[in-house]
Every structure is written in structure tokens, then in C-alpha cells.
Amino acid sequence: MSKKLSLLLVFAICTLSVFAQKKDDVLGKWVNPSGEGQIEIYKKGDKYFGKLAWIKEPNDEKGKPKTDLKNPNADLRSKPILGLEILKDFVFEDGKWTDGTIYDPKTGKTYSCNLNIKNDGQLNIRGYVGISLIGRSESWKRAK
Fold it and tell me: Residue 104 maps to which CATH number?
């Protein structure tokens, strides 16, 4: 009987450690579908954020760093796109990252967003306005 109890205890501890690590599975670098950008997801406190860590063409035709020209806040339009924080304020809940936002520097728009890792290891990004049913999804692959 004590052998079964010991096995059950070991299983419970292993299961808890897997769940404890799962919330940080999103950390690291991810490649967007076009392959033209890498987003590094990191943690600040209990929340998750992501910045553009690499872009295929970081400079404009004059050789200067591309800036956030479409930002609705004129004061932020001179900020370089490389290093720009595009994912903000995600919290881990029920196996996914929710209540965050994603910023699209190509349009200057910010959307509500949820993230989850699919069975194939890709990161599913769901950006939306209002309710999640009305939105767009894309999958990012982990950078190698």
C-alpha cells in the first residue's frame, strides 16, 4: 500500500511541476508567418510582453532605422520599430495567455489579443476588436 502511495505522490509532484512550468512555455523568440520578423516574448512580474527582436529590413531606403510612422500618438512616431513592444500585459490563465494587446506597426492599430500554444508547438495569436469571434488569427513558429 505504501508503494502505491509513494508512486501517487511522485506522480502528483511531477504533474504539479509540469503545470508550474507551462505558464512560461511562451517565453523566447517566435517567427511571424512571413518570416520577416522575430518577436521575443518575456516576462515582467506576472505579465508577459513581446518586442520585435529582429526584422528583415530594419532600415529605410536612406539607411536609417525604420520608425513607428503609423502610431496614432505623434510623439511615438520617431521610435524605431526594431525593439518595439508589440505584445503587452498578457496573464496566464487556464492554459493560455489572455487579456493582452497586440500592436500592428504596419497600421498603427492595437487589438485585444489572446495567445495559446497549439499541439504542434506553434503559438496561436488571436487579435480582435470587441469579442474574440470577430478577429484574425495567425501562427508563429519558435525561432531556432
Answer: 2.40.128.520
